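Help! Submission page says 'invalid entity' but I think these are all valid:
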Amino acid sequence: MKEPYDGPILEITNLSISFFTRLFEIPAVMDFSCTVMPGEAMGLVGESGCGKSTVALGVMQDLGVNGKCVAGSIKFKGRELTTMGEKELRELRGSEIAMIYQEPMASLNPAMKIGKQLMEVPMIHEGASKQVAYDMAIDVVESVRLPDPKRIMNSFPHQLSGGQQQRIVIAMALMSKPSLLILDEPTTALDVTVEAGIVDLVKDLGKKYGTSMLFISHNLGLVLDTCDRLCVMYSGEAVETGSIEDVFDKMRHPYTQALFRSIPLPGADKNESPLVAIPGNFPLPHERPNGCNFGPRCNYFEAGRCDSGDVKMKPFAENDRHHSRCVKFDEIDWDAKLAAGDDTQKVMSGEVVLKVDNLKKYYEVAANAVFGGGEKRVVKANETIAFEAHESETLAIVGESGCGKSTLAKVLMGLETATDGTVTLLGQDVGNTMIQDRDTKTVSSVQMVFQNPFDTLNPAMTVGSQIIRALEIFGVGNSPAERRDRMLRLLDLVKLPREFADRMPRQLSGGQKQRVGIARAFAGDAQIVVADEPVSALDVSVQAAVTDLLMEIQRENKTTLLFISHDLSIVRYLSDRVMVMYLGHVVEMGTTEQIFSPPYHPYTEALLSAVPIADTSIVKKRVVLDGDIPSAMNPPSGCPFQTRCRYKDQVAGGLCDTEVPPMRTLAGGHEMKCHLSASILDAMEPVITQTKKKVAKKKPAAKKKPAKAK
Amino acid sequence: MEPLSGFEIFTGVIARFWIVWISMVLIFAISIKTKRKTALYGKLFDSPIGMVGFALVLFWVLTALFADLIMTHDPLGQVSGMKNKVPGTPLRGATVDEYQWYLLGGDHLARDVFSRVIAGSRIVLKIAPLATLFAFMVGITLGLPAGYFGKRIDTILSFLANMILAFPVILLFYLLVTPEIIATGLPLFLAGVMFLIPIVFMILLWQSRFHIRPKVRNKYVFWTLMIGGWIYLGAAFNMDPLVIVRNLFAGSEATWQTFPKGLVYMQSNILIVFVSVVFVNSPTVFRIVRGLAMDIQTRDYVAAAQTRGEGPWYIMLWEILPNARGPLIVDFCLRIGYTIILLGTLGFFGLGLESESPDWGTTINSGRKLLTIYAHPALPPALSLMSLVLGLNLLADGLREQSLKD
């Protein structure tokens, strides 16, 4: 069926894609070229709106009614795709080119059993018989490492977890042994430990089947883990392309450089070497500048050269197939050290402002909600949580979805009451006081910054009136004029222009909305701010700016920051102390130093290993967890982590199965919930090690040693 | 005088609407010119479907507005010899300053069909949008808490709504207008409750928003109570305070008959129609609002409002409701259409409105009896009803289409 082919699998030359609205043309991709050789994995990296997904859709020729390839060519195995007819394209899609999308649930048909969906692929493309298709499907389900393939084949998509669903989507893509696999942010919707498993799988399958891959991601660390080459995109253009090592270590485009400086790598520290945010905002397609698109935000900008005429991709002779779209890349001193940023003094943390002791939060879920009765089930969202937070301290709460961190936030905020235990806030027990019964001062002193910038502001109200509303409710200011003045000063505080007061939220970018959210949280001089993944939905370059802003306000106001996150890189960068949660339990707690160096809790170890780090000089020990997080409805007996723990057999007497480990205190106030003996803990090796200095000479890629679990 | 030819009837009818045409051209010209500045309304003029719908609706609204200028004769006046006369028949014994023809002929009681259609549009457009608005107020006031709080409130309210929806509409109408039922005071009681809800709604709106600024709140609540209370007493119980005051001054002999109508007054049979229409429409609105509230309350801005200690009514009325407006506006247009059909049905069954009322449903019903011999009395109101409802549906389609784009 498929002829052998040894030229480039995918060859895109000078591709331009535009979307047409009734009023004007929006160029989404301009002058984009890239080549994917057989068996090669190509990464496409860029911020949202840079056109990386449009390239993928262009390859699939699935641009919808508004989109069109206006120039250039896309050749797949030498065949031109842009002029191909619908029928031929249909034969290619799903059989020669397969695509994996971000949302696994949206890629599967919820009304069809998994088996049937998988079997469709060979039956349609190869006309295989039912039995042959079934056998193939079973094979593929096995090869994506799902347990009990027969049962999986016979279940509906909603009966599987997110990670399992994504494995099925991958299996479906592999059913027809495609030559090219396009992965559009395949793990963004998943938890880090699950993501690590998927990434491993994708890499291995790529090798096993010899499939070429186009891997689209905003996460540089992930691309480092999976790809051989990468292409950095900015505002519709490829700005730099080359092999992973070249681009990571010898970048030749200011945007790539700025991107690396704005992500928290190990070694970055909020006080000594703060992140450098990229100034300005991502240009919208119709407001792109003349010449270099990155010009207005670039440190090396030179009027007259950078803003006149189109900039073409130019090869960087030293390296293999390394191109950059910068007129000045020969002149810039790329190894120059960053001018030392303004060092800030570490603020000493003060007295205890928040003390949580033995906190429990159980939900009762009735089986039959309408008439009551029926069997009642208890969800233990939080189980015996105890911690303290001090003034002007950043306490990070780390954990994956379902670990109970949001429930904890709800109890602190007073949206839920604790089932048991005490929450002492500024000397007042509020564990059982709902927010309606708290006095204004208490309410205004604990505020929250939310995760989703597109959801955090009411779309029907102007930015200014939303902040004024918060001021009103907190009783700040005596007259409308006074409050308006205070609102304008809050906008100054979060570094937004004062004109924004009269704008509607939809006129703001994600980062700007998040700043308004922060301004609103600080309206009543909050002393404790719970930040629920405040930057995880933002683009990398904006993340740094928002993080820095939070830090700065914290320093000035001596605020206690409870930073909820699953992103350990950013936690390492900004927090003073870390609390790791798993299934409602605090499994480990200590200073950032203690958490990020051995001895680890087995879960923390896996978490650390799972987080992709965009630095070629980092060697990670690979610990991949099996399976998924158990449901909180039906937690495992004994230690919550025992189902996935790789040290379980090193604890005598099966203690892990039967008993929840007590919280024990190790040296320096480092706390941990684990049965492991002190000798095993002491023998742990660090997960992350830095092998060499960042500025490297020609060297082989850092090999990651797969030290597989069990 | 000669009877008019078909073409002359056509031009005659078109000419009668001159003021409507001029107004429509003006409104369209201004709207298209400023369409970039007027958010969703302006975007309507980007969609051909929306424009057609808007034009149809606008035509009938303007017709109702200028009905006195358009009508050729008294819609209730009978002229002997004009019974069942075909369109274009000259008016027998017309004086000089009278319009000389029955443009669309005469009906079985020798009344001018054309004038009755125009007069009917006024009745329809007076009741339908207002009744729909009331249905929305009731549906929103009950739907928001059901969706937001959920649990028991939701169970009870949804159960009630389902019960009303499960009851046959026509049967319900028959029951509500039966003299025995009216005598029990049930429709009046329903009116009393339903008309109270908008006032409660407005007070909640002000209280939730301005409870921290009592002066502003008091001002708004005072005016709501004054104006709302006046309309409430007049519309629901025919007890316009002005009438009471006037009766007081008129001395002891004065009865209700002396000044039967206040400024705010609703005929009792129209009131019953109004109440029934609100009654059957509000459960559907309730369900829509409940669903929207359930969806929107999961947003972070609702959580943000909760964490700064806002009360539930503030969240429902100021955070959730404005963001549910898109689907509600679309449904509002559609629902006016349904209400008009419902009014037609009521008129057709002779429920509620008087038998000589020129509203479209009643006229269709009276024209029906001789339909095989004389089609002209029944057709014009039927076509009018159809075009108005079609216009509203197209308008809703256009709004939906445009609100999805952005």
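Support: the input was valid. A stray whitespace character was the problem, and the output above is from the cleaned input. DSSP finds 22 helices and 26 strands in chain A.
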